[in-house]
Amino acid sequence: MKLITGNEKLTELFEKYPELEGFFINNGLKEAVEHDFLKKTGKFLKLSSFLKLKQRDEKDFLKALNEFLNRDNVEDITLRESSKEGDFSVEGLLPCPVRIPLLEGLNRVIEKGKDKGFTVSTKLEAASTGARWLEERFKDVKTADDLPDLFISAGFDVFFSERGIGGIIRESGEFVDISWEKYNSSFKDYELKDPEGIYSLIGFVPAVFLVNLEMLGDLPVPESWEELLDEKYNQMVSLPVEDFDLFNALVLGIYKLYGEEGVAKLGKLLIKAMHPSQMVKSVQRSKAHVRPAVTIMPYFFSRMMQGSKKVRVVWPKDGSIVSPIFVVAKKKLINKFKEIADYFVSKEVGEILAHKGLFPSTHPEVENILPDYAPINWIGWDFVYNNNIQGLIDNLFEVFNKNAREIS
C-alpha cells in the first residue's frame, strides 16, 4: 500500500507519483504542479506546509489523496477509455472531482459484461473541456443513430437545444428514463421525474455564495438571491461565466425567479468572471488583483475553504440554484446490456456524486452531505418543456452582457 504522510517535498512527490498531478488540478491546487513553482520551491516545500499555506484541511486532503493513489489501476484509467467503435457507446462530460471514480466503476461493469460478447466504446471527458468538445462531437449529428447509446452531462442546453441534439433525443423515441420512481428524501418537495419519460435526473451541481468578509466590509452578508441582487453589491461579485453548465442554470434560475430584470441585475453584480479554483485563490491571496466580496461557485469548491476565518459559505435561504446532472439512454442498450444503464443510476454512482463531489444525488438510498437547511431552486419540468431553452439562454446572455461591466 502506498502512503503519503505530508512530509514529502512536492518535487519528490510528483516525481514518484506523476499520476497525482491530475488529482491536485481537479482539487483546485493547480499551482502545485506548475513548472516555475516546482522549480523555485518544490525541492524545499513539504506537502503539509503547502496545504497549510493554502488553508486546506491536511487530514481530509491526505485521506482523499491516499484513497486516490491506492485505487486499482488508477494510472491507467483514462487510457482504458476507448473511442473505437463498439457495439455500444457511452459518452459525456463528467465533473472533474468524480470523473476518475466513475470511470473506474464503469470499466468494472464493462469487464464483467464481456461474457455477453458485446464491446463498449467510452468517451467521458472532463467537464472543463465543456462547450468545445460538445460542439465538435455533435456538429454533424443528424439522427439518433449518430448519438451515443448513453450520454451523461450536467446542464440544460446540450439536452434541450432545439438546434442541437436535444430535439433528436426528444423526437426519436429511442431514449427512455431509467431512474427510480421514488427520489431521495432531500428532494421530497420537488417533482424530479421526467413526465415525458425520456431523461433521468441523477443529481445536482448546487451554487452557493462564498463571502469574503474582509472585502464585504460593513455591508451585510447576503443570505439569499433576492438580497444579493441588491444594487449595493454591484461590481462586487464573481460569477462562474466560464462554467457554462452552472452559469446557464444560474441565468435560467434567476430569470424564473425575477424575470429579465433579475438577469440584468445579475450582470451589474459582476466584478470578474473566474473559474472556481481562481475564485478560491482570490480569497486566499490578499494581494490578488481582483478580490470579489462574494463569489458564486459550485458547493464542491466551498470544501477548500473549511476552517478559514476570512470567509463564510452561504447556502441561499431561498434555495441553491442547481445545474441538473442528466443521463439519457437508448432502449437498445437497456434491452441488450442493461448493466451499463443500471450502473449510472446505481447507489454506487449516487455516493460518488454525493461524497466525492458534493453533488447531491437523487438516488433514494444515498445520504447526501448537505447543510441542515438546504433548499434548491430547480426550475422544473414544466419550465423546461414550455420554453425554448437554448433560445432563452441566448437571449438572457444578451441581457446579462449588456449590463455587465467586468473589471479587467
What percentage of amino acids are in beta strands?
15-25%
CATH superfamily of the largest domain: Periplasmic binding protein-like II
Topology, number of strands = 11
CATH topology of the largest domain: D-Maltodextrin-Binding Protein, domain 2
Write up what this structure looks like:
The protein has 408 residues and is an alpha/beta fold. It has three domains: 10-70, no CATH class; 75-204 and 321-386, Periplasmic binding protein-like II (D-Maltodextrin-Binding Protein, domain 2), CATH 3.40.190.10; 207-318 and 396-403, 3-Layer(aba) Sandwich (D-Maltodextrin-Binding Protein, domain 2). Helices cover 41% and strands 15% of the residues. The chain has helices at residues 10-16, 20-26, 35-42, 47-53, 58-69, 96-112, 130-138, 157-160, 165-172, 213-216, 225-228, 244-269, 276-284, 299-302, 331-336, 338-344, 347-356, 381-385, 389-403, and strands at 88-94, 120-126, 150-154, 175-176, 200-212, 237-239, 270-273, 294-298, 311-314, 320-330, 376-377. Strands 1, 2, 3, 4, 5, 6, 7, 8, 9, 10 and 11 form an eleven-stranded mixed beta sheet that branches. β6, α12 and β7 form a beta-alpha-beta unit. α6 (96-112) runs antiparallel to α16 and α6 (96-112) runs antiparallel to α17. The longest helix is centred in the middle third of the chain and has 26 residues, at 244-269. It is globular. The termini are far apart. The relative contact order is 0.15.
